[in-house]
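Re: that chain you flagged

S.,

Sorry for the slow reply, it's been a week of failed gels. I finally had a moment to sit down with the sequence you sent. For the record, here it is as I used it:
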Amino acid sequence: MSQKPTSDAKILIRSFGRRRTKGLRVTRASAMENVLPLVQIELPKGDKPVDPHSFFDAKVKEIWFEIGFGNGEHLLHQALNNPDIGMIGCEPFMNGVAALCVGIEEKKVKNIRVWPEDARLLMARLKPKSLDRLFLLHPDPWPKTRHHKRRFVQTETLDQIAQLLKPKAQFRMATDHPVLATWLLEKTYFHPAFRWTASSADDWRLPPEDWPETRYGQKGLKQGRPPVYLIFKRA
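Prediction finished late last night. Pasting the structure tokens below so you have them in one place:
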């Protein structure tokens, strides 16, 4: 089981997402029971920074980190196509964790580790400059003005991401919510630690070549919500 935050961690984070909305189907419940204990990240006690390479049994050349992986389609795709990369996925929504566990079991994936809690709790323990790539795909837009403070991307969060990314590491974001797209772009563009890589409209209208087509993305396109793809690099 993962190490829960303790008083010595000096972390106070309030999560607003739902942990579970419905009962798990037999296949997902079985995968949760059999797979999650094998891939769930365990943190040592205390507040000493942890090298994420230590989460993996085999040697990995880079660490890629996905925040809010949904049902895990993108995470699985990247893991299967980059077997020498250590993939860390964070998702507090247990139905999504269960779906990922099914995929890990079916495809016999070895290079994924899961943090089934708020990503910020794990980020607070990671060694600085230890991540080679970070994904934030379709985060909750929290459209009401009074809820904007709940959006994941804030100046303080970007400070933390900047501390964890290596120089020139890639930070990818995507959303099909136009107001949130403006928020993500402005917050990150004006943060001194990041540089937007776009040089033409296609760079934010079209997905990167290694981007898989997911059910969520297909649904958005059918409903007239084309995604915006924002790719930044750590300065």
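What I noticed first: The chain has a mean pLDDT of 91.

Talk soon,
D.
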